[in-house]
Design goal:
184 residues, mainly alpha
């Protein structure tokens, strides 16, 4: 980071805070708007898979944030570029995680306790283990390759979202779970 005082680097850490607040505010209206549009187009019914549409809107922020963050760290770009990239990543992550969580809870309402526990476990475990490998990974392959790989992994799971949107209801019926399914 190229600066001569401690104040600008301190402000750097406001990036994820601002991104989180923006994601909460924008995400609230975005999720509601997408749900209302779906309901209007589908005779008043909201299928859980409709909650996943938000992933496509948030993914560009998440992917761009990861890629630019890798370049900014490796090439030592201005700290504000790093802050904006970090903010984009956090914004995308927040919006995606709410959509995926809403899908899971809507798809399995009778197991909401278990679903919530698994969501919280995966968030906690995922956030916790990063500290054990991220720094060494960056030191070994560089920030561009490290964050680029993470962006590629995020993009590579999009077919799973598509599969869930296309076949999710049939998959829940097959397993005998979910809204509108006997025993679900």
């Amino acid at each position: 980071m190229s600066c001569t005082s401690n104040v600008p680097p301190g402000f750097f850490f406001f990036a994820p805070i601002v991104a989180t607040i923006l994601a909460e505010v924008i995400g609230h209206y975005l999720h509601d708007t997408l749900a209302h549009l779906y309901i209007r187009r589908h005779q008043g019914r909201l299928e859980p898979e409709a909650r996943l549409t938000v992933v496509y809107l948030a993914l560009p922020f998440l992917l761009t944030g990861l890629v630019v963050l890798g370049f900014a760290l490796e090439r030592q770009w201005h700290y504000m570029v790093t802050a904006v990239a970090w903010g984009m990543y956090v914004f995308g992550t927040m919006v995606v995680s709410v959509g995926v969580s809403a899908y899971q809870l809507d798809a399995y309402p009778s197991e909401s306790g278990e679903v919530g526990a698994w969501i919280n476990f995966s968030r906690t475990a995922g956030g916790f283990i990063v500290a054990y490998f991220q720094v060494r990974w960056v030191a070994k392959v560089g920030a561009e390759a490290c964050f680029g790989t993470q962006a590629a992994i995020c993009a590579a799971v999009v077919p799973i979202i598509v599969l869930l949107q296309v076949r999710g209801k049939a998959m829940r019926r097959w397993e005998g779970k979910g809204p509108g399914v006997m025993g679900g």
